[in-house]
Amino acid sequence: EVLPATAVAKALADLDSDDAALLVDDLEEGKRETVLAAVPDVDRAVLQESLTFEEETAGRLMQREFVAAPEFWTAGQTIDHMRSTHDDLPDLFFEVYVVDPGFRPVGAVPLSNLLRAPRDARLMDILGPVQALINPDMDQEEVAFLFSKYNLISAPVVDAGGRLKGMLTIDDIVDVIEAENKEDMLALAGVSDADVSDNIARSVRAGAPWLLLNLGTAFVASASIALFQGTIEKVVALAAVMPIVASVGGNAGNQTLAVTVRALADREMTVSNAARAVSREAATGVMNGLIVALVLGAAASFWFHDPRLALVSASAVLINLTCAGLM
Q1: Which residue has better confidence, 267 or 187?
Q2: How many helices (H) and strands (E) does the chain have?
Q3: Strand order through the sheet with 95-99
Q4: How far apart are CA 324 and CA 318, in angstroms?
Q5: pLDDT greater than 70 at residue 254
Q6: Which residues pair with 70 in a beta bridge?
């Protein structure tokens, strides 16, 4: 915040384009314009183009510095070219992209293969397929899924015409995976993105809506209990059993929710297998309900010496766990 715009602009020139774009995006609007005005024209155009892409897309993460070579080059020519232009190379890269005359990637040569190949080996003879072509508008979560699916360490980014525009590397995707996992965990806890450094008002806004929603469902539960107020007055032991049934049902619902959200995040649950997943969780609820019902029924019978109360307790927990898994 205390650095003059010229110092920030000089620092941006020393960064890879993806890191520079991240820094510029974090600047306040007024400071950003001042800093960009001090950046060289070419670098400013690249940064401004990055900011045109939506947040959390591949275009924002994309690094413009990459190494590409024509398909007719040899391994020796490629290595010599990289040595002669070392100042312009990315700080971190793993592959040389082989492109056709239209600058469309036709394959990639890992640096490990390039260094092992004879100098006269043609790139066309040692290249491997490109596992995934990334569109700049692709959501970062989808990009992370592709990196995980194909065990990628880098991937080319292409425009609508298939021309090479940049690349994504695993160091950026690890950050995306951490961010998406954090988002999933917060969703499970019923809060939006709130950090420990946030002020009280933001923290309250993150959690209060879900607490109010839970309050509404609690009123529904209380209304259901009120319908049987007369029965509870006659059989006071029911009041001791009710919290047990409710607590076990809540835990069962959280288990199912965690499994389901994880399956959605990993793309394991789709429209085609959703019915099977619902059936499985409902059946799991029934089986868990039978196991817990037997234990609770036996405990209630021993505790209250009333077989009917034991049967009611066991039935209640069976129904509750089945509903928890299904809902």
Answers
A1: 267
A2: 15, 5
A3: 68-70, 95-99, 105-110
A4: 10
A5: yes
A6: 99
In tens, the pLDDT along 87-122 reads 888 888 999 999 999 999 999 999 999 999 999 999
Tell me the C-alpha distance between 162 and 42, whole Å. 23
User: 156 burial class (0-12, 13-18, 19+ CB within 10 angstroms)?
Assistant: buried
* 306-318 residue pLDDT tens: 898 899 999 999 9
The separation between CA 174 and the C-alpha centre of its own chain, rounded to angstroms, equals 10
Query: Which residue in this structure is represented by tokens 């991937």?
Result: 155
- Report, as an integer, the average pLDDT of 133-158: 93
Closest-CA residue to 190 (of 115, 291, 242, 261)? 261
- Residue in 134, 215, 140, 214 with CA at minimum distance from that of residue 167: 134
- Backbone conformation region of residue 317, classed left if phi is above 0, alpha if psi is from -120 to 50, else beta: alpha
- 87: DSSP letter: G
Q: What residues have CB less than 8 Å from 279, skipping those under 6 apart?
A: none
To which H or E segment does residue 154 belong?
strand 154-158
Model confidence at 58, in pLDDT bands (50, 70, 90)? Answer: very high
